[in-house]
Amino acid sequence: MAKPKSSYRCTGCGHQVAKWVGRCPECSEWGSIDEVAGAPTSSRTTAAVAPSSPALRITEVDAQSTAAVPTGIGELDRVLGRGVVPGSVILLAGEPGVGKSTLLLETVKHWAAQDRVALYITGEESAGQVRMRAERTGAVHANVYLAAETDLATILGHVDTVRPSLMIIDSVQTVVASGADGVTGGVTQIRAVTTALVSLAKDRGIAVILVGHVTKEGAVAGPRSLEHLVDVVLAFEGDKHSTLRMVRGVKNRFGAADEVGCFEQRDDGIHQVPDPSGIFLHQRDSDVSGSVTMVTMDGKRALVGEVQALANGTEMSNPRRAVSGLDFNRVAMVLAVLQARAGRKELGKSEVYLSTVGGMRVTEPAADLAIALSVYSTLTQRPVPQSTVVIGEVGLGGEIRRVSAVARRLAEAKRLGFREAIIPAATDEELPKGIRILRVANLGDAVHLRDSDPVDAPF
């Protein structure tokens, strides 16, 4: 048997180094490097051990024991994949103040209303503070048990006493495992706590939802192995200037990982928004130049939104470009193509302002054509009709490239009452009936639709 070799590990971030140093090279923490004894290595193979239960044929495994249980919140069930699976561990991560605790209080209220027991563990607030918020949002129910604990062993004792079918841990960074080294919220502690909770969930069939913090870059705080240990990872997103909140699936072992749930934060709590497209549209009585309606895909969900453009002439040698809700680099490329391929030379001497409506954020290329037509519309003062939606990616050569899920986008536009759509000519999907289709192959065709089709055309 080989002699065990010691290593040195940071108790704050878990980074390993070959020899002791005073400051961790990864997290720059002083005095956090501790020696960790290595396990002895052996060249012999591991001896076989008799299993506690025999392996079953896959046809003999009871699938009903892990059937998803609806939470009662349709938008959350949509992202989870029909509901919460017993024995699963879900990680919900988001920025401070976005509404994670409010959403989970709403979840346990609906869960308890179905004659199920829920246990809410809070490590960041007192029980009285959580009760006060629950009264404000109407989330008080007799089947919801509340405990303010940070010790893992005590939490397991609450589970033995209450025997819940759903447990919330708010948050996993505040829970301490007495048998693990490291500071509270450190890599070692988070890994030990999560491993214990995953084992608890699998052994007793309890669904566990962990609240996680995020870094300033927006990633889940803690070790990367945290996301590997859990079954589902959800990102809770929202803008402090908007009431709209999005629950986005990042990882899901029980359903699609690209679903999106929409919610609205109000004074009396958080409410689901089954039809969010109306939030991203500006209600106006007449056509306005510079405003174009587009249909984007957020995961598998089609969202109808609006992009607005304004262009003003200027004497500055470097005209200003201001963008809100769109990718700045993508907008700069579309403006360059519009100037070179559509003959709009005045863009070189114009300030251009572009914005989406309702705080919508768009990064996909399918919004390129809508951006180009909104700028062209404000330059020519010829509005695009409100009944028209625009879909397409613009290439550097001025060509309009096809995009994915055009049929799904048009179905959503038709449902909202739009009567006309401008799409790429190369689209080969089977499109829904009842909406007029205008196909364009390049940017020149798109901006000169009025010349070729003068009846009810956008230009």
Automatic annotation (TrEMBL):
Motif RadA KNRFG motif per UniProt: ranges: 251-255
Region (Lon-protease-like): 351-459
One GO process term, biological-process aspect: recombinational repair
Chain coiled-coil ranges: none
UniProt GO MF annotations: ATP binding; ATP-dependent DNA damage sensor activity; damaged DNA binding; hydrolase activity; zinc ion binding
Highest taxon of the lineage: Bacteria
InterPro entries listed in its UniProt record: AAA+_ATPase, DNA_repair_RadA, P-loop_NTPase, RecA_ATP-bd, Ribosomal_Su5_D2-typ_SF, Ribsml_uS5_D2-typ_fold_subgr, Rubredoxin_2
Domain RecA family profile: 65-214
Any GO CC annotation of this UniProt entry: cytosol
Residue numbers binding ATP: 94-101
Keywords: ATP-binding, DNA damage, DNA repair, DNA-binding, Hydrolase, Metal-binding, Nucleotide-binding, Stress response, Zinc, Zinc-finger
Gene3D superfamilies, alphabetized: 3.30.230.10, P-loop containing nucleotide triphosphate hydrolases (3.40.50.300)
NCBIfam families reported in the protein's UniProt record: sms
Alphabetical list of HAMAP family matching this protein: RadA_bact (MF_01498)
Record note on domains: The middle region has homology to RecA with ATPase motifs including the RadA KNRFG motif, while the C-terminus is homologous to Lon protease.
Summary of the function given for this chain in its UniProt record: Plays a role in repairing double-strand DNA breaks, probably involving stabilizing or processing branched DNA or blocked replication forks.
Family: Belongs to the RecA family. RadA subfamily.
Name listed for the protein in its UniProt record: DNA repair protein RadA
Protein's gene: radA
